[in-house]
Amino acid sequence: MSEITASIALIVVLLLLLGGGVWVGLTLAGVAWFGMEFFTARAAGDAMAITIWGSASSWTLTALPLFVWMGEILYRTNLSESMFRGLAPWVNALPGRLLHTNVIGCTIFAAVSGSSAATCATVGKMNVPELMKRGYPQDQVIGSLGGPATLGLLIPPSIILIVYGVSAELSISKLFMAGVLPGIMLAVMFSGWIMVWALMNPSKVPKADATMSFKEKIYESRHLIPVVLLIASVIASIYTGIATATEAAAIGVVGSLILSAAQGALTWKNFKDSLFGATRLYCMIALILAGAAFMTLSMGYMGLPRQLAEYVGSLNLSPAMLIVVLGIFYIVIGCFLDGISTIVLTMSVVLPIIQAAGIDPLWFGIFLVITVETAQITPPVGFNLFVLQGMTGKQITYIARVCAPYFFLMVIALVILWFFPQIVTVLPNHM
User: What are the boundaries of the signal sequence (predicted)?
Assistant: First the structure.
């Protein structure tokens, strides 16, 4: 009974603080302090200080601001301007033609930014006006951008995978490698859906542009190729063991500075803006992680994760049924919270449950990220929906409807990963 009372009290305080507009990180710390002060014999003050310092000074976390800075630097180069020009010549022969530039552009920029909303905004600013001008159907233009933009959460270097790795105490390098093949699989599924739609509606696809020689295609892609090579080198350095995730992040920052300088985009203003932008984003994430670490400690002292794990265990759910329940839970909660907040809020409770069920935490991390991805295109709080609404002026309901096929494709991808977990584990196992 005391655990039930404590749980209800914590949920009420959490909802009150979040509803009052308090920052997520401060809300987590506040709820943790409340729980420890009123439901345990442990003094809350020194526990909070020790826990927050310990979480903020983690060496593993160093990779996060570096990867964020790498994305900020490349964001300020000619990457977004050359995205469409560089990709368009290569996809003209495919059914659906230039709609594939949304998928491929999002896949490339996802590896740069690690952010779904940033991927959606950057690729959209370039591609949406261009595709509309060329006569592509508006619903397909918007849908093929909103769905693939969610890849920013999965394809390494991913901010949310670092957050999960720190929360679950897993190797960031192995998590990055685990996300590569599922990310490519999703990109192929998205492009496959565009091809199916194009073959079913050939009259809605504009005619192809003039064909180019291989040499001309390479020339059009000249600004894009160095960025792709940089991303590939960062991932390869982690996979081969040449560098840890943190060292690879440093390589990425140095490489992006060199590329930016070579393109003439490395001005003092851009350097300063990229540094400030990365610092602001990292401070926000670090505050959330610090609050989550204190909340994890507080809930541990109250015994809530153990009690909940024992309760779920008493239901005798099979691992498959547990995954279905957790998938629905995360899709619902993701409709109201952003991905990082969703993960740090629930990790202390969910992790003991999946470990007790014998589910690989590495596999579960990829499952969790894809589930959180689906929430990016589901109302009412789908961040990609807001970005697309601001870009196109369309209603949220319309945007959610045109993005719906990509939501179902991600659900199918989760089913595939359940039956073929090797897609997630094969690269980490061969590192």
Answer: none
The answer on pLDDT for 422 being more than 90 is: yes
Residues 6 or more apart whose CB falls under 8 angstroms from that of 376 comprise: 116, 117, 149, 150, 153, 334, 339, 382, 383, 384, 385
Question: Distance between CA 247 and CA 253 in Å, rounded?
Answer: 10
Closest C-alpha among 364, 365, 351 to residue 304: 351
Whole-angstrom distance, CA of residue 244 vs CA of residue 237? 8
Listed in order, strand segments (DSSP E) in 38-165 are none
Query: How far are the Cα atoms of 74, 141, 318, 397 from residue 385, in angstroms, in the given order?
Result: 24, 14, 35, 9
Q: Which amino acid, residue 234?
A: V
Residue 185 CA to chain centroid, in angstroms? 16
Confidence of residue 113 (pLDDT cuts 50, 70, 90): low
C-alpha distances out from residue 76 to 87, 271, 274, 389, 397, Å: 19, 9, 8, 23, 32
How many alpha carbons fall within 13 Å on the CB side of residue 20?
A: 10
The DSSP line for 73-109 is HHHTTTHHHHHHHHHHHHHTTSTTGGGHHHHHHHHHH
Q: Which residues contact 68 (CB under 8 A, 6 or more apart)?
A: 114, 159, 278, 281, 282
Query: Rounded to whole angstroms, how far apart are CA atoms 409 and 415?
Result: 10
pLDDT value at 114 more than 70: no
Residue 306 has pLDDT above 70, yes or no: no
DSSP 8-state symbol, 150: G
Which is nearest to 164 in space by CA: 285, 246, 331?
285
Residue with token string 């919270």:
337
Per DSSP, the residues of 414-429 read HHHHHH-THHHHHHHH
- And the tokens for 278? 């990365």
Q: Are 65 and 276 in contact (CB under 8 A)?
A: no
What are the tens digits of pLDDT across the range 338-374?
Answer: 677 778 777 877 888 888 888 999 999 999 999 888 8
Euclidean distance between CA atoms 384 and 403, whole angstroms: 10
Q: How confident is the model at residue 238 (pLDDT cuts 50, 70, 90)?
A: confident
